[in-house]
Design goal:
Elements lengths: L6 E7 L3 H14 L4 E6 L10 E3 L6 H11 L7 E5 L2
Parallel strand pairs: 1-2, 1-4, 2-3
Length: about 80
């Protein structure tokens, strides 16, 4: 929490799991987020993080839909979205 505001990080990945997991690890080592939200097709690639399982993202429109409509699981004032 910064100045009374909560901050989340969201990762959406179904293609380059190792790179996305590395990006998340680096982000978590440098900042204490109030919420971590991971959307992925594989739950076992994310250690002890909570994962919302999704179908593989094949088109940019599917990614956009996820960001716009499915991010209702975020409960923070601000969110950093890590792009795929």
């Amino acid at each position: 929490m910064i100045n009374g505001k909560t901050i989340a990080i969201a990762i959406e990945d179904t293609l380059q799991h190792s790179l996305a997991a590395n990006a998340l690890s680096n982000s978590l080592s440098g900042f204490n987020f109030d919420q971590v939200l991971i959307y992925s097709d594989l739950k076992d690639k994310w250690g002890n993080q909570d994962v919302i399982q999704i179908k593989p993202i094949k088109k940019i429109s599917e990614y956009n839909d996820l960001i716009i409509h499915q991010s209702i699981d975020l409960h923070c004032d601000y969110v950093l979205i890590s792009p795929p």
